[in-house]
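thoughts on both lines:
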Amino acid sequence: MITTRTGTDTLRTTDASSADADAVDAALAASGDPHAFERLYRRHVNRVHNLVRRMLGEDAEDVTQEVLVRAWQKIGTFRGEAAFGTWLHRLAVNLVLNRRTSRSRFRRLFVEEPGTGLEPPARPASPAQGLDFETAMARLSPGARQVFVLHDVEGYRHEEIAGMLGINVGTSKSQLHYARMALRKTLG
């Protein structure tokens, strides 16, 4: 058994045989075995999808598939220094961050900013909406959502988040604070 610390300081125990199976299947997939990669895909697709959905909020299915296609293309670079799931997770985070950067660049070049728009309501329209965590997360700004997911869900430290997102540690902390306060307000 392998015990790891998750983002909420709880311990998660995984069977060492699944890590061994990942290592074997990664080696087989790197040598061109599509069945081995399919087994890796089935073991990890849900976790990748949840990460992408939480970080981006939209296009999760397309980006999840893009992550897994990229994993198939880059499986030969997997050296086994970390668990396959960790390598795949990092690949997904990098792809999401790259997508966010390119989307931001596109918007600056081609999308006009609205002059004055309607402010969103301070409270959800109905009590049922206030209890939907995924909807509340989707309402966060992209920066706050990403810091929240990376810190509180995935367990990264602020220093690591700052390095991944290219921001200051203080910015990471303030984005996390903003995200938590907004979620608390929305969820009641």
Residues 84-110 form the longest helix (27 residues). Strands lie at 2-5, 11-14. The domain at 125-188 is CATH 1.10.10.10 (Arc Repressor Mutant, subunit A). The chain has nine helices and two strands.
